[in-house]
Amino acid sequence: MTPAAYRCGGVLFAIAGTVAFAFRPVLIKLGYGAAPVSATTLLFLRMVLSLPLFAAVGWWLRNEPPLARRDWAGIVGLGFLGYYLASLLDFLGLQYIPAGHGRLIMFLYPTLVVILSALFLGKRATGRELAALAVTYTGIALVLSQQLGTPAEHRLFFFGAALVFGSSMCYAVYLVTGSQLIKRVGTMRFTAYTMMVSTVPAVIQFGILEGQAALELPRIVWVYAILLATVCTVLPVFLVAESLKRIGASQFALIGALGPVTTVLADFMLLDGKLSSLQLLGGVLVIGGVLLVTLKKG
Fold first, then answer.
1. What's this model's pTM, rounded to 2 decimal places?
2. Which parts of the chain fold into alpha helices (H)?
């Protein structure tokens, strides 16, 4: 394969993975709209239905060097934080806010990585990163500005936004703390193992709060859950991993900006979602600020 073809494949993998990830909040909202299904049940279905595929990848990589005890501890902790807790907060938050808004808030995680790295790793933020933070959070303020007021639905909107922001924060912590572990373990094995680990608390939570009766759902909800587990979870995880290997994080960040745009468009077409002109401007600022903080100079 020529270098140009190798890179072209990486770009195509990045686009496909980004678009697949972008439909996750839309499918979650469609599931909520199709039946009175709880976030606990929908998260359980996503985790359990994707488990066999991640387990198959783990088995395929079984001949890799054995992991040290500290690596297993890191996988357990990061699986709980980065996949279970982050997903739970995202699922809960999307009960109260549109998919497009949720994706824009979730897209803040690169800026949170900058803040956390400065606070806990001693990595001083550059002028460019500080400018990106100002632009990004101005954008989020504009996105949320239409919901200012005291009505109950507005309070629920901000509650949902806070939950999704918490999800973004969990994912940022996961990235900051897991970067060295990923280098030791390998991207594919790390992803497969942490996803398997994150299934355990999801199953326990479902067993305590819901039970088997909660699985008596319309067929369409099962269709959404299967698509959520496969097309929007397993497939993009490995597409993105391969893309990062081929084109690097900087170029992937540029393509990754398609994510919020795709979600907003899908929200508009499938869920009758909408953004005002002021919120659209805020969305542009969010995407621009994130690109500013993730793209490398030159």
1. 0.88
2. 3-22, 24-34, 39-60, 69-78, 86-93, 99-106, 109-120, 127-145, 152-185, 187-209, 219-229, 235-256, 258-271, 277-294
